[in-house]
Amino acid sequence: MSLLSTTRRRLGACLLGLVMAAAVHAQGNLEIDTPAIAALKQSMQKRHAQLAPLYAAGAVGLAADGTVALRDAGSVPLAQRTQANAAIAAENADRAALYREIARANDHPEWEADVRRTFAQRWIDRAQPGWWVQQGGKWVQK
Amino acid sequence: MRARLSACCVLALLVGGVSPAQAVDRLSVAVADVVSAGLVLRDIRAEFDAARGTAAISVARARFGERVERDLRLRCGRAALDFQGFTCHRAAAQVGGKRIPAVFDLELDRRHGHVRMAAVLDGGGRLELDAGEGGRVRARLAELKAEGLQALLAAWSPSLVRRVQDLQPAGRVSGELDWQPGAGASPRLEVQLRLSEAGFGTADGLRAAEKLAVDLSLDARRSGAAWHWQLALDWQAGAAYLHPLFLEAGPRLSAHGRLDDRQLHIERAELELEGVRRVSASASADLDALDQGRLALEVQGADLAVVGPRWIAPLVAPASAERWAFAGHASGALQLAQGRLQAAEVAFDAAGFSLAAAADGTALALGPIGGALSWRAGQRSGARLQVAGGHWGKLALGGFEVDAELMGEGVTVARTRVPVLDGALVLDDLSLWRGAAGWAGRGSVVIEPVSMPALTAALELPQMSGVLSASLPGLRVSPGEIALDGALVISVFDGYLHATGLRLREPFGVAAHLNADVEARHIDLAQLTETFSFGSMSGFVDADVRGLELARWRPVAFAARIASSPGEYRRRISQRAVENIGALGGAGAIAAIQRSLLRLFDTFGYSELGLQCRLARGVCLMDGIEGATRADGGFVIVRGGGVPALDVIGYNRRVDWDELVDRLQRVIAGNVSPELR
């Protein structure tokens, strides 16, 4: 269990790192290594162990606006749907903060929307096979 | 020829000419019309084949109330027609060419005027109907499965079944229905049902229930054009998820109202709910557009410790739901129309709210809170709350009042004075409104002087003298940021700290951090070093800290410059202070000290001191007195002056910040011996 959890966390860390790197590249010389961003990355990586099974089950998908969304709660046991929803809300709060922080770190807070768009596409591009992503307003399984 | 007969006359026609002694081989009957209360049958044909023991009945067109069905057929696998009446067993029924998925047994009891029907549904369960004189119909349902019931209903109302199918119903239903046409136009329907192992779920899983056991009791009577009804529901087992709420068995509902021309009126509903003294509601809606109706809900005596985690946190703050705690009681009322909130009233009685710290952030608690708030869509309304106190981290907050005006999704708070220790935090003209991206607002903040001895004691810091105050007239709130234009001033150590450009970013998340520029002037080193047990230094320093960033109250970035204040004053540094400065650098890090002098004297004169640190990514890039870089790469931190005098020179320009802080704390604690060379 702990091995699985650790593996998921590492996978999450790798994924987050890849997405961050890709986003930086796409945005040019973005400096994203601030303490606030590090704290957000750590928080998101920790939560990834909780979200990964939800992505795999199709309960949660990667939305086109850079958030994660509850798309099919039916695969989550009834008593755990509130926790799943809480994890999604917390993840989205972290993601919103991450996009703002990256824009701030570049001294361009007005870039937030661009950062969000770039990240949204990278999250989707790098989603694992079987995960659900939002494309053209529809959910599709990778 | 057109016949107009009552229902029981059909039976008479079928069997009337048959005596017990007579045998009928084959009988065919054709009837043009049968008209009874609420029932019209047209073009009825019945055939009875005594030799085979079968019968077939067809009705070309049937009208039940306002409902019309065509081509009704009943084919009996075994039938008997005699003086007692007509029996039909193992019958198959069709409506409009579609088989009704059940096997029927039918009995027409001529003597007692009863029609009995039993149906074993293909999907499981049994349904019995008993129609007596006067049109009374009683039905008994035994373990009818949802699948079988749907299939049965599909013949009656495909559109209803399609809608129900979206909910994927499951489970069994048992119970009784009693339809009493009554005298005149006052029929009555009584229903007692029990759902067991029941559930449903929408395709997206946002509304679902499992293992439900619910008792339902309905008593409806028609008076004039309206039905007056009473309903009771007792939810005994199972659980449901109605996004984002998870609900468990226990609630009981009783309600009464009327149904008038497809307008459903709930005149009063009472809900027994754990943690609430009373929940009542009234509502009205068109049956074809239930979500567009009107609802008034009243809640009295809600125990917030119970209802807060279940009902409030998942709705209001799902991301931090587990960090919220509630206490006290609240009562309130809500009005909704067309699916939108129209008005809300809430009164608090000794209510308490607390938000536990995220990671190692700062916790917030407020309460007990009394008072009330009122909100009306499109109108100005108000809130007046009395907060008896609270805590923000280690700081205790005194009692204060909040007087707010509410308008739409905005709130304006009049002057609010929150006592903090012996001072106060004063919010003036604070306006907040919710936009598409989140909350925004503006206002001003004043911190009335808080004494530093009280503040440092509360924060469990070494005691300092002086006061802290602030005038921040430019408070601006935007999603993820609170900007405070103005200055926060701390008079301390005979000088002052002046912080400007205060920005609190991501204040409610794990990445909460504070940015500011700080200017310190004329800080008395004697008081400073005494306070932090750093040895003894006399003199004064000025400091400028640009781009200070605090995360969880710890510095993570800044560019700091400390230098002796201008002016004439005594400048001495103790042996212990010199040793401690050396200790901060670690092995081979900082000190080049005339060791022999250090052993001979307790204090030394100096002419100037200076230290610079640019902190980024956990590393402090250090420098000393400006322009005092030595040829050997060292930098002068303390330049000697007077007699005896010594220089303190640093050589390590890159210092790990965490290590530096750790060593500083150990130096203050007196656990580090100096490392000199």
Protein described:
The complex is a heterodimer of chains A (142) and B (677). Chain A is of the alpha+beta class and 142 residues long. Chain A has one domain. Chain A has helices at 2-27, 35-57, 81-105, 112-125; strands at residues 60-62, 68-70, 132-135, 138-141. In chain A, strand 1 (60-62) and strand 2 (68-70) form a beta hairpin. The model of chain A is unreliable at 22-29 (pLDDT under 50). With 677 residues, chain B is mainly beta. Chain B has a 44-stranded mixed sheet that branches. In chain B, helix 2 runs antiparallel to helix 3 (158-165). Chains A and B meet through helix 2 and helix 3 of A and strand 15 and strand 16 of B.
Fold topology:
The complex is a heterodimer of chains A (142) and B (677).
Chain A (H helix, E strand, L loop, with lengths): L1 H26 L7 H23 L2 E3 L5 E3 L10 H25 L6 H14 L6 E4 L2 E4 L1
Parallel strand pairs in A: 1-3
Antiparallel strand pairs in A: 1-2, 3-4
Helix pairs in contact in A: 1-2, 1-4, 2-3, 3-4
Chain B lengths: L3 E2 L1 H9 L10 E11 L2 E11 L4 E11 L2 E10 L1 E4 L3 E11 L2 E2 L2 E8 L4 E8 L4 E6 L5 E9 H11 L1 H8 L4 E11 L7 E14 L5 E17 L2 E17 L2 E4 L3 E9 L2 E11 L2 E11 L2 E15 H13 L7 E14 L2 E16 L8 E13 L3 E8 L2 E3 L2 E3 L2 E8 L2 E4 L2 E5 L2 E13 L2 E14 H7 L8 E12 L2 E12 L2 E11 L7 E12 H7 L8 E12 L2 E11 L7 E3 H10 L10 H6 L2 E14 L2 E5 L11 E6 L7 E3 L3 E3 H13 L8
Helix pairs in contact in B: 2-3
